[in-house]
């Protein structure tokens, strides 16, 4: 008996739904034929890339015909100094999404369970489901990861726990004390992945990066990205820091040329541009305050965020509001994919973008 193509597909892939990215400016232009369009949907840096990065990419153009360094030696060396780890503890990926996927590939098979928080970043379940693992979503508390409940959900079958700190799409975070107690309580047969895509934005005394615990917990993996505060979402570079053992396995399944040379030099230049980093953080802090004030003035609630986006409750008409904002040239992020049907997520923009968005939102709300 012959099998149909769908019957040949791996079990985990059957029910998988592809990730829905934020709508792009180009796509909206094609759909509506309007401009200008402001995208506040994917937590990108509104300042554009650093000038130093642009210059570094320019000077690398003659190398386009040769394969990149399969080991990203120069980027790893710089990161290892900066982070006080050794090169063998690092895995460089095509965005941090790739390193998250590598973790799933290294550790997961059918019969394994993966724990993550309800309303946590969607890629954890996508990568885990693709490997055929069983997904265990743990209820959150006030939009925050409930680490006690996540620890209670551990069984003999648990292989990985994903924690986003801060979390996307809620912007909430896990405190130093909670994190430490959690790490101590997790048995060593469970891999803990701390996704720190937004850690640079956090300005809380009680926040601590998982990097602090890397030497103490051999089952811990910390992931980071150049896509957000470094303004390089397009070049796709992220990394994982882990024990040499874990990083070694991840590097075995990684494709040799997963990160382009352009991307590597861009990431190196970005790490060297402290001024851009500070300006980005300052822009974000001011923009966040501006958005929170404006949203409050519209009598809307939001989830307090320590990242570069704000998730606001607009009510049952969220989808209509989203569509109406699109027609005014503002792309934001609907969250129905996360089960948050009355919410929209707005990335913090420049002062002018935030202002324009608030005006557009008011007009849309008034017209309902
Ligand atoms: C944006 C984001 C990432 C980063 O993805 P890249 O592949 O590095 O661009 C990772 N985790 C979370 C929670 C994010 O929001």
Automatic annotation (TrEMBL):
Its annotated pathway reads: Amino-acid biosynthesis; L-histidine biosynthesis; L-histidine from 5-phospho-alpha-D-ribose 1-diphosphate: step 7/9
InterPro entries linked: Aminotransferase_I/II_large, HisP_aminotrans, HistidinolP_aminotransfase, PyrdxlP-dep_Trfase, PyrdxlP-dep_Trfase_major, PyrdxlP-dep_Trfase_small
Please give the catalytic activity noted in the UniProt record.
Answer: L-histidinol phosphate + 2-oxoglutarate = 3-(imidazol-4-yl)-2-oxopropyl phosphate + L-glutamate
Cited SUPFAM superfamilies? PLP-dependent transferases
The GO annotation for biological process reads: L-histidine biosynthetic process
Q: Which domain of life is it from?
A: Bacteria
Q: Does the keyword Transit peptide apply?
A: no
Q: Which UniProt keywords apply?
A: Amino-acid biosynthesis, Aminotransferase, Histidine biosynthesis, Pyridoxal phosphate, Transferase
Enzyme Commission number(s): 2.6.1.9
Q: Which cofactor does it need?
A: pyridoxal 5'-phosphate
Q: Which GO terms describe its molecular function?
A: histidinol-phosphate transaminase activity; pyridoxal phosphate binding
What sequence ranges are listed for the domain Aminotransferase class I/classII large? 36-360
Q: Which residues carry this modification: N6-(pyridoxal phosphate)lysine?
A: 228
Q: What CDD domains does the annotation carry? A: AAT_like
PANTHER family, per the entry: HISTIDINOL-PHOSPHATE AMINOTRANSFERASE, HISTIDINOL-PHOSPHATE AMINOTRANSFERASE 2
Belongs to which family?
Belongs to the class-II pyridoxal-phosphate-dependent aminotransferase family. Histidinol-phosphate aminotransferase subfamily.
Q: How does it assemble?
A: Homodimer.
Question: What NCBIfam families would the database entry show?
Answer: hisC
> What protein name does the entry list?
Histidinol-phosphate aminotransferase
What is the organism of origin for this protein?
Gynuella sunshinyii YC6258
